[in-house]
Amino acid sequence: MKTLGIVCKPQPKRCRPALKRLLEWAEAKGVSTVLDPVAASILGSPEPPLPRESLPETADLIAVLGGDGTLLSVARHLHRKEVPLLGVNLGHLGFLTENASEEMIPALEAYLRGEAVIERRMMLETSLLRNEYPAETFTCLNDAVISKSALARMIHLRVEVENHWLTDMRSDGIILSTPTGSTAYNLSAGGPILSPGMEGIIVVPLCPHTLTMRPIVVDSTHPLSVTLLEGEEVFFTADGQRGTPLHSGDRLRVRRSPHQVPLVTAPDRDYFSLLREKLGWGARWRGDGDTP
């Protein structure tokens, strides 16, 4: 590794200690560093920063100090070059930024030795068609979501799988999630958790009018389309960070992206221990609220 890219969440008190340790480690190893604008601002660095969208063109590895939202803001730019990401959790839950601050340097050392585990995560490519003409394309690591505003009525959607009609539904919206995103909005909406190495797309109705509508997992080789048949104040969002208003007749084509996100994990950590840790599975609660 010649160049390490560094991205930070805009929270100086949380990020500064980890950022300094990271730079000291890189200097000791003879690894050059490039900073995103937030990291440069936290350090007061005189060196010009690189925008996040440009980091994959320069860095061999990108360390993301923050939370899952910070990592998602980098991941959508990796279609240009699939650079590995090392997520360091300085937030709260952190399913994507799964390495704790104290695990950051050991994970980097393992990466240099070739012992780190690199998980390649599936992404979604979502194209918006307006009057059957492509209007915009979005890439997501977690999910593509159609939802109504707080005061709007239920919306009417048509869902098709590989040009086969699946259903028409009246609901508050729909979530199309990757296995990685199954522990995000999908989980809160009652969808299933998928192991991140799987290749499937989870379709989750949001508060459907028909109670028999349930989440379904579709083979990722089958493209999906969702058409807004009727609705006002309807929005599409990709990973909760980018999006656009939708109009009646708009159609979203969703397929597995040809690109993946390589995530660096510690060699002694597995996904199931992460679930136990983050979701509190297997904990036995006493009456005083403490865990044994």
Which structural traits does this protein have?
292 residues, alpha+beta, Rossmann fold, 6-stranded antiparallel beta sheet, 7 helices, 21% helix
Give the terminus-to-terminus CA distance: 43 Å
Overall number of structural domains: 2
Q: SSE order, as H and E?
A: EHEHHEHEEHEEEEEEHEEEEEEH
Under the CATH scheme, which architecture of the largest domain would be assigned? Sandwich
Q: Which fold name is given in CATH as the topology of the largest domain?
A: Tumour Suppressor Smad4
Q: How large is the radius of gyration?
A: 20 Å
Number of strands: 17
Give the overall average pLDDT. 91
Reconstruct the topology from this structure:
Blueprint: E1 3-8, H1 12-29, E2 32-35, H2 37-43, H3 55-58, E3 61-66, H4 68-75, E4 85-89, E5 99-100, H5 104-113, E6 117-130, E7 133-140, E8 143-148, E9 155-161, E10 164-171, E11 173-177, H6 185-188, E12 200-206, E13 216-219, E14 224-230, E15 234-238, E16 242-246, E17 251-265, H7 271-279
Parallel strand pairs: 1-2, 1-3, 3-4, 4-5
Antiparallel strand pairs: 6-7, 6-17, 8-11, 8-15, 9-10, 9-14, 11-12, 12-13, 14-17, 15-16
Characterize the structure shown.
The chain is of the alpha+beta class and about 290 residues long. It folds into 2 domains: about 5-115 and about 265-280, Probable inorganic polyphosphate/atp-NAD kinase, domain 1 (Rossmann fold); about 125-260, Probable inorganic polyphosphate/atp-NAD kinase, domain 2 (Tumour Suppressor Smad4). The chain contains 7 helices and 17 strands. It has helices at about 10-30, 35-45, 55-60, 70-75, 105-115, 185-190, 270-280; strands at about 5-10, 30-35, 60-65, 85-90, 100, 115-130, 135-140, 145-150, 155-160, 165-170, 175, 200-205, 215-220, 225-230, 235-240, 240-245, 250-265. Strands 7-6-17-14-9-10 form a 6-stranded antiparallel β-sheet, with no helix packed on it. The chain has a 6-stranded antiparallel β-sheet with strand order 13-12-11-8-15-16, with no helix packed on it. Strands 2-1-3-4-5 form a 5-stranded parallel β-sheet, with helices on both faces. The termini are far apart. About 40% of the residues are buried. The model has no long low-confidence stretch (mean pLDDT about 90).
